[in-house]
Design brief:
about 450 residues, alpha/beta, eight-stranded mixed beta sheet, 18 helices, about 15% strand
Length: about 450
């Protein structure tokens, strides 16, 4: 199909219509959004790399850390999380709070966490507290309950099925020596990347959209979300905003509330992303599972932006850089763009012959593939701590523009579902009796 389009008369015809016509058909998304944002991220990544390579060794800073591990149905996988935290190369105190949600029915996870007590006691400065929440209350309930138990100066909010590189705590906590740092978003990688094609594509997506993109934005103090599976906070900041709020999408919610608090009181703050503080999580192994997960994630985004946090879209609260970035990377990229892309694609096939439209879309595909390849290679050179592993996935890059298109169409469905049926209430993050009580 591609060969026929490339050798057909339709490719030259695209250019015969004139440069302005081609510009209007293909370039607006690129010139005014995709390309500038990509350049900003690349500049940010290069800036981070240069600073990091010339960074002087810091004095020892090892504050006590409390890790709130939210557990629901992880089973024996929770032991990987506890083991990887226990074995951290970190001389300071690490307190692990395994919050077993719905422990009455979640006996395997509860027993698996308890089994780790003997292992943890064999390590200096390590402590494990297993807290059974007999009736399920959801993720936010677990986080806030864990916050009441936490004694550390630094709080880590972690998923019960996420494991970590053994220098993670040291890498994440070093930033808090700067009193202006309120939180650090950790870097997530796909642990089961070799399980399926879908998992491999998500591994590429995580590397580009999390490890690289957030590094670039962090260089300009524009981190737009603290990962829910791997967020690190100064405890005093969590006390100021009174912990996590009820409902779903608690990661973006608390990010916005922290920004709002400091913007309202005109206090200096920074939220950073550290590509060297690395956690590993299992991504959905099937395409159906991937779409189902993103329906929830993208629907939660619409819920927060349109229902709960409309007042947050204010440059006086966020500051102009963060305000513009949340408009571009959040509202426009993840909510508006799927509708524009869908309308653009339909318009092409209605307005022009199928061969002509297909040839134009092929040009779009080739442009995005070229941009992705260039960015991916730059990011591997600058950021990857596993370059051989990341380079081994180069063969999957030609599938990524198609994968991204499918994800954006799925995002369109999620947004419509949220706006028409409050889809955020259908979530695995909390039982229905919790979400129904939420005023949003």
């Amino acid at each position: 199909m591609f060969e026929e389009l490339l050798t057909s008369e339709y490719i030259p015809l695209l250019f015969e219509e004139g440069a302005m016509t081609l510009l209007l058909k293909f370039m607006p998304f690129v010139l005014f959004f995709e390309l500038p944002l990509s350049i900003l991220v690349i500049i940010g990544v290069i800036k981070y790399t240069l600073i990091r390579r010339n960074e002087e060794e810091r004095r020892p800073f090892f504050p006590p850390v409390s890790c709130i591990i939210t557990c629901y149905s992880e089973g024996r996988d929770v032991q990987k999380t506890i083991r990887s935290l226990t074995e951290q190369i970190y001389p300071g105190k690490i307190e692990m709070l395994a919050m077993i949600d719905g422990a009455a029915k979640n006996k395997l996870t509860y027993d698996s966490a308890l089994e780790m007590s003997g292992f943890v006691t064999g390590f200096e400065n390590r402590k494990l507290i297993v807290v059974p929440k007999w009736q399920r209350g959801g993720r936010v309930s677990s986080l806030n309950t864990g916050l009441n138990f936490a004694s550390g100066e630094i709080i880590m909010a972690l998923d019960g099925d996420t494991s970590f590189d053994n220098n993670m705590v040291e890498r994440a906590t070093r930033h808090f020596e700067d009193p202006s740092v309120s939180a650090v978003s950790g870097c997530l990688r796909v642990r089961n990347a070799d399980e399926s094609l879908t998992a491999s594509l998500q591994a590429i997506e995580y590397f580009v959209s999390i490890q690289a993109s957030k590094t670039g934005l962090s260089s300009f103090n524009m981190v737009n979300n603290i990962s829910g599976a791997f967020g690190v906070f100064r405890k005093s900041v969590l006390d100021l905003v009174e912990g996590w709020d009820a409902g779903t999408a608690e990661d973006l919610d608390i990010t916005l509330r922290i920004k709002n608090y400091f913007g309202r009181y005109k206090k200096e703050f920074r939220i950073l992303f550290d590509p060297e503080a690395i956690g590993h999580t299992d991504a959905p192994a099937t395409f159906k599972g991937f779409l189902k997960q993103r329906i929830r994630w993208d629907g939660d985004l619409s819920y927060l932006y349109f229902r709960k946090h409309r007042p947050s879209f204010n440059p006086k609260l966020l500051g102009w850089p963060n305000f513009l970035m949340i408009i571009l990377t959040g509202l426009f990229s993840q909510i508006v763009m799927p509708f524009l892309i869908f309308a653009y694609t339909v318009w092409l096939f209605v307005r022009y012959p199928i061969e002509y439209s297909s040839a134009l879309l092929l040009m779009v595909y080739l442009f995005y593939l070229l941009l992705l390849v260039v960015m991916y290679l730059i990011f591997v050179v600058c950021l990857s701590e596993r370059p051989k592993e990341d380079l081994s996935r180069l063969c999957f890059l030609p599938l990524m523009p198609i994968f991204a298109f499918a994800a954006r169409m799925n995002s369109l469905v999620a947004t419509v579902w949220e706006l028409t049926a409050s889809g955020h209430r259908d979530t695995s993050m909390a039982p229905w009796w919790v979400t129904q009580k939420n005023k949003f």
